[in-house]
Amino acid sequence: MTRVVVVGSINMDLVTLARRFAGPGETILGERFLTVHGGKGANQAVAAARLGAEVALVGAVGDDAFGSELHAGLAREGISPEHVARIADCGSGTASITVAGGENQIIVVPAANARVTPAQVERAQATLARADAILVQMEIPLDAVEATLRLGHRLGRPVILNPAPAQPLPVEWLQLARYLTPNQHELAILLGADTHADFRSLMLRAPAPVVLTRGGEGAWYRDGDDTVHQPGFKVEVVDTTGAGDTFNAALAVFLHEGLPDAVRKACAAAALSVTRLGAQGGMPTCAELDRWLAQH
């Protein structure tokens, strides 16, 4: 069984479905409201667990009702909560999400996620040392992201850095990652480049190998001095929330099969995830992915 360790955020998603997005100062009627477990870290952990990996999560929740529910949800998914801290004087992270026309708008309040520390990452060293892949994103403090990159590199474990939300990072940090997994906009920000620059040239300039996602078009990855395109899969889109997290999780789970196969399965898993509502609600199991790939 593949072992995956995720270092990242844990949120309660507050989701509103509407016919369209409200404009500034405008009030409109929504069609449905629900609360679902989310956060990029937790999403990637859940997706990896459903795809058959043994998963541990390093993160933090608040000492509140959301925190208790989120902690219990991770356990139900079979994810080890050993390194999920409960912060006594802080609420849990939230994401307010509006879904309209198959697209989404999101506002994240980090709360307990802002309390993830390098020391907490170091305390998980024994767990990270056993990982076949380590996933980290940027909804936690950057010093914890750096600590994950450095520790994973020191342990000789492949670290996949999903640079979202994007911001420029030191080249030295990026060189510690086995793979960077941005979309086109995130890659430009990460490298401090023009967001309208050709993404293929940016991929070749990056200080670490890039697996770049472009929604329904699929993904591109670097092979020597060239880029390779893995086409996306056509599906009826219901909700794109969590598609990128599903992609990253699948990439980590299947990385041992080689990059081309891992990217293909990651594109397929992401495509499946957008056919259902909710970030974690749409994430497929390994059996579902296998059946779907057999038909496509």
Automatic annotation (TrEMBL):
- List, alphabetically, the SUPFAM superfamilies matched: Ribokinase-like (SSF53613)
Q: GO cellular-component terms in the record? A: cytosol
Q: Where does substrate bind?
A: 11-13, 39-43, 139, 245
Q: What is its main location?
A: cytoplasm
Which InterPro entries does the record match to this protein? Carboh/pur_kinase_PfkB_CS, PfkB_dom, Ribo/fructo_kinase, Ribokinase, Ribokinase-like
Pathway(s) the chain acts in: Carbohydrate metabolism; D-ribose degradation; D-ribose 5-phosphate from beta-D-ribopyranose: step 2/2
* Family as reported in the entry's similarity comment: Belongs to the carbohydrate kinase PfkB family. Ribokinase subfamily.
**Record protein name field:** Ribokinase
Q: Which organism is it from?
A: Dyella soli
